[in-house]
Amino acid sequence: MIIKNLKSEKKIILTIDFEDFFFDFSSEIKSNQIKNLENHLMKIYLEIEYILKENSIDKGVTFFTTGNLIERYPDLVKEISLKNEIALHSYEHNSPKNLSYEKFEKDLNDAILVYKKVLKQDPKGYRAPNFGVGDDINYYKIISKYFKYDSSYQLNNFLKEEKFDGIDEFPIFKNNFLLPSRIIGGTFLKVFPYYMIKKFILECIRNKFYPIIYLHPYELNTDFSFYVNCFKENDLNIGEKLYWSLRQLQWIGYSNFFVKKKLNFLLKEFKVLGRMENFLG
Ligand SMILES: [Zn+2]
Q1: Local structure of 264: helix, strand or coil
Q2: How deeply is 166 buried, as exposed, middle or buried, from its count of CB atoms within 10 A (0-12, 13-18, 19+)?
Q3: Is CATH 3.40.50.150 correct for 11-279?
Q4: Which residues, 6+ apart, have CB-to-CB distance to 36 below 8 Å?
Q5: Which of 47, 93, 100, 253 can pair with 249 through a Cys bridge, CB separation 3.0 to 4.6 Å?
Q6: Per residue of the chain (281 residues), what is the pLDDT tens digit?
Q7: Rounded to the nearest whole angstrom, what is the distance from the C-alpha of residue 236 to the centroid of ligand 1?
Q8: Domain boundaries, the chain
Q9: pTM of full prediction above 0.85
Q10: Measured in angstroms, how far is the CA atom of residue 189 from the centroid of ligand 1?
């Protein structure tokens, strides 16, 4: 079933897609560049903890974490799990729509295996990289075999409810102003001014959904540590090298300073519902 905000409460759900952009993007462009960013990610995590504490969010939030990050930095993930829920965000951070159903299921299993090994329990929640499961019911059937809830579905009305037999769905509300914008995270959180973000959030609430904020570690960071040099060790052609260099500026470089400010405004104005695992239907 779809989790709804039937009373139109002024509440938001804060989530973190806790992934290592450098590792994921470097693998995606088939570069062998390796960088250990554990200390860096820890610093960003502590900053998130500080923001949560400042806003009296005592019981933690949900961190959607990739299997590859759990495998490489188990101590960091254990530390986060002391105060927050760890859910999964795939093993390799490939968008599911680029994978066959078999490969998608294998990726889930790889992530679950490392999760259990490190955290000694079963994960409850899942979010697809790039929310890349679209409307394809077969992906949701596979997800529901392993998880109690999912937060990958993008919608702007209550139709298509029937997909979610056997799993609780926290949908990402889509606003169709100018471009379809997801409520609200990533580039949308960066480029829209605060008054617009607030307008989108209120629209989501009017439509009886919970606005979901999805933050990435590289958005809270201003020192370019996650930047992958596309001109080194890969098979991209010159056009692709330039394209991916610029796209990275959009993801990890542009206006990160303002993300923190907007987040602080949001947390002052809307009450945050904590871990997703605590309010399943
Ligand atoms: Zn992601």
Answers
A1: helix
A2: exposed
A3: no
A4: none
A5: 253
A6: 888 888 989 999 999 999 999 999 888 888 888 899 999 999 999 999 999 999 999 899 999 999 999 999 999 999 999 999 999 999 999 999 999 999 999 999 999 999 999 999 999 999 999 988 988 889 999 999 999 999 999 886 655 566 777 889 999 988 776 666 777 887 788 888 899 899 989 988 998 889 999 999 988 877 788 888 888 878 889 999 999 898 888 778 766 778 888 999 999 999 999 899 998 76
A7: 22
A8: 11-279
A9: yes
A10: 15
